[in-house]
């Protein structure tokens, strides 16, 4: 949808989609943020309109801090950069490879289609990343350094992240707007695509 208005660069972070693997067993925010920076540098982008969802939203926030000149406007959905142990458990418990195969065989097949037989190792890497997040916050003081206009959106029925995280981002980022979508769970597939895309596009264009 956004390709009608923007030149879109879709980024598969390391260990995701068609990108290669990370070389560390327990990656941190910086490992993913450096990959985003590499994209920015490769295409020589400045004042870009950036959108991120879930983990990608955390990377987008970190990118705006690391390269403020590269991010002109920012929209994040389903973001959490201040994790606690209960949120880690809720996110990682369903990700055990045996449980994925037993409880969500569709996702096991999909992961195998995309990543082949290395998918359990990649899932283990993401579990290690997530498990360390309570010790790797972006604090409110950090977030206060995001200078670009930022749209923060979330569903009020998100099974993983309480809406307080979106409210916290909105309060911490100096030039932020907040949109809470009633009845929406965490998976972005649940959004009303035309409405959501139009709202984000309007904001990223300066509306």
Structural class: alpha/beta
* Low-confidence regions: none
Fraction of helical residues: 40-55%
Mean pLDDT: 94
| Morphology call | globular
Rg calc: 17 Å
Q: The biggest beta sheet, please? A: 4 strands, parallel
The overall strand count is 4
Strand content: 5-15%
Please report the number of helical segments: 9
Strand order of the largest sheet: 1-2-3-4
The end-to-end distance, rounded to whole angstroms, is 17 Å
Order of helices and strands: HEHEHHHHHEHEH
Verbal overview:
The protein is of the alpha/beta class. It is 43% helix and 12% strand. It has nine helices and four strands, in the order αβαβαααααβαβα. It has helices spanning 29-42, 55-66, 85-92, 97-103, 105-115, 119-131, 140-143, 164-172, 193-204; strands spanning 48-53, 71-77, 150-155, 176-181. Helix 8 links the parallel strand 3 (150-155) and strand 4 (176-181).
Compile the SSE list and pairings.
Elements: H1 29-42, E1 48-53, H2 55-66, E2 71-77, H3 85-92, H4 97-103, H5 105-115, H6 119-131, H7 140-143, E3 150-155, H8 164-172, E4 176-181, H9 193-204
Parallel strand pairs: 1-2, 2-3, 3-4
Helix pairs in contact: 1-2, 4-5
